[in-house]
């Protein structure tokens, strides 16, 4: 264990770096690939190296499937982080929630859900491009993009589309964006709870109000009418089942051992439709990379032009024939290096022969897996080609684990890749992405979140010829 300071422990070591996870690799050179840290009042273990990380995620998954009990997560989820899909401990109820969700977030290729998602993305992308055509330097493009992706989610999961210009919709988008940004921040008070007394009560109160407003929007606009149908037994068996139906079937048919109540269903829906924020933030960061790499843009455009012959929209079916575009998405995921959510030991165990006590927080250093020069050639450079083999096919190294793995893997990872593919291919099919004077395009790494007001771009229409 490195030398610790009184009260704060090793927190000072993490504050010296742009991304705290960078410190883990430095410390490991002296203290080994697995070492203890005392972060304020929280005992923690840092795990470096692929084999050690795989032991946590796969080999001993049931020993390490808990989540940290951080008080602000409770504040964001109506006083109980167990309401969250990502920040709850694993349980039979969590297993049920994942099983219900998987059918929708991992649609089989060319299934009805896959084709439905495909048509929805294209519908919403054409709406976004119509806005860009009217104003190629949209003020706060991030909000326009978030609104577009949000409608993809609402139509796909809830069979409902919104007018994105409505004030209530815009408020909902901004609330989700603010909550997502908050979730992705790290604070000393997460490890020194008494510091929360010195933090702005207005900030905490505002975030709590945003969470409640999101909940009210979801209930009023997505759940209430459907609940009435179930309570009156008016649902037609021939109706196509969306995610709302999947949840309410469990609530009202009461057939599962891990009983799902209406409150759980509401939070599950609220959580998954909030996934639009993660995807829009990711796409914004990818555009932030690509505005600095016109050569990468040109290669995407060459690929999309060859597949669509400049005469039709991009479809999800094109994805396997556009490896460079897919590789660009993977390279952006790698460069952003968003950390795996920390795990917590649910029982006494061990990692790599290193003793781990129950309730210890586990940090998995996937930042090093993404950015180590020992694993990647020139890791600081944006090079989509690293994910394409000699045969022109996508290849993902074993050490590339951006969505974690095992029972706590990210449930939205396929949605991220599918929606990002069509969005980026569609934008570059129609536009060249250019810088605006006075704008800075340094992409923050280490998490997915961006501030509400962030990059602005010039979408310059391409002069396309058949």
TrEMBL record:
<keyword id="KW-0349">Heme</keyword>
<protein>
    <submittedName>
        <fullName>CYP307A1</fullName>
    </submittedName>
</protein>
<dbReference type="GO" id="GO:0004497">
    <property type="term" value="F:monooxygenase activity"/>
</dbReference>
<dbReference type="GO" id="GO:0020037">
    <property type="term" value="F:heme binding"/>
</dbReference>
<feature type="binding site" description="axial binding residue">
    <location>
        <position position="410"/>
    </location>
    <ligand>
        <name>heme</name>
    </ligand>
</feature>
<keyword id="KW-0560">Oxidoreductase</keyword>
<dbReference type="InterPro" id="IPR002401">
    <property type="entry name" value="Cyt_P450_E_grp-I"/>
</dbReference>
<dbReference type="GO" id="GO:0016705">
    <property type="term" value="F:oxidoreductase activity, acting on paired donors, with incorporation or reduction of molecular oxygen"/>
</dbReference>
<keyword id="KW-0479">Metal-binding</keyword>
<keyword id="KW-0503">Monooxygenase</keyword>
<dbReference type="InterPro" id="IPR036396">
    <property type="entry name" value="Cyt_P450_sf"/>
</dbReference>
<dbReference type="GO" id="GO:0005506">
    <property type="term" value="F:iron ion binding"/>
</dbReference>
<dbReference type="InterPro" id="IPR001128">
    <property type="entry name" value="Cyt_P450"/>
</dbReference>
<dbReference type="Pfam" id="PF00067">
    <property type="entry name" value="p450"/>
</dbReference>
<keyword id="KW-0408">Iron</keyword>
<comment type="similarity">
    <text>Belongs to the cytochrome P450 family.</text>
</comment>
<dbReference type="InterPro" id="IPR017972">
    <property type="entry name" value="Cyt_P450_CS"/>
</dbReference>
């Amino acid at each position: 264990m490195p030398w610790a300071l009184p009260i704060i422990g090793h927190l000072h070591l993490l504050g010296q770096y742009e991304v705290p996870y960078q410190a883990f690799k430095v410390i490991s050179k002296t203290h080994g690939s697995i070492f203890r840290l005392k972060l304020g009042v929280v005992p923690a273990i840092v795990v470096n190296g692929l084999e050690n990380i795989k032991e946590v995620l796969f080999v001993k998954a049931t020993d390490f499937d808990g989540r940290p009990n951080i008080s602000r997560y409770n504040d964001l989820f109506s006083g109980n982080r167990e309401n969250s899909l990502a920040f709850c401990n694993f349980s039979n109820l969590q297993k049920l929630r994942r099983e219900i969700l998987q059918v929708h977030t991992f649609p089989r290729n060319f299934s009805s859900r896959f084709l439905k998602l495909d048509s929805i993305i294209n519908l919403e992308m054409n709406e976004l491009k119509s806005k860009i055509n009217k104003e190629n330097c949209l003020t706060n493009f991030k909000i326009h993009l978030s609104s577009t992706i949000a409608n993809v989610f609402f139509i796909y999961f809830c069979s409902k589309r919104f007018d994105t210009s409505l004030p209530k919709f815009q408020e909902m988008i901004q609330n989700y964006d603010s909550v997502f940004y908050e979730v992705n921040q790290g604070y000393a008070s997460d490890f020194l709870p008494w510091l929360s007394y010195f933090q702005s009560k207005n900030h905490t109160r505002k975030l709590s109000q945003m969470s409640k407003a999101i909940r009210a929007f979801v209930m009023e606009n997505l759940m209430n009418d459907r609940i009435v149908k179930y309570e009156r037994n008016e649902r037609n068996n021939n109706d196509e089942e969306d995610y709302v139906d999947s949840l309410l079937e469990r609530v009202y048919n009461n057939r599962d051992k891990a009983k799902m109540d209406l409150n759980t269903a509401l939070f599950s829906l609220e959580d998954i439709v909030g996934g639009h924020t993660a995807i829009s933030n990711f796409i914004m960061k990818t555009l932030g990379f690509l505005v600095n790499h016109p050569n990468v843009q040109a290669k995407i455009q060459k690929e999309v032009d060859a597949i669509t012959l400049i005469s039709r929209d991009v479809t999800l079916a094109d994805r396997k024939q556009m490896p460079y575009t897919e590789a660009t998405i993977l390279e952006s995921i790698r460069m952003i290096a968003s950390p795996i959510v920390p795990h917590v030991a649910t029982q006494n165990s061990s990692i790599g022969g290193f003793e781990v006590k129950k309730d210890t927080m586990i940090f998995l250093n996937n930042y090093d897996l993404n950015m180590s020069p020992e694993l990647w050639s020139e890791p600081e450079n944006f090079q989509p080609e690293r994910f394409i083999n000699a045969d022109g096919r996508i290849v993902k190294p074993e050490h590339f684990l951006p969505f974690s793995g095992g029972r706590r893997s990210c449930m939205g990872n396929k949605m991220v890749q599918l929606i990002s593919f069509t969005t980026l291919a569609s934008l570059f099919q129609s536009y060249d992405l250019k810088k605006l004077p006075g704008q800075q395009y340094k992409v923050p790494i280490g998490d997915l979140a961006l501030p509400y007001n962030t990059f602005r771009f010039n979408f310059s229409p391409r002069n396309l010829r058949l």
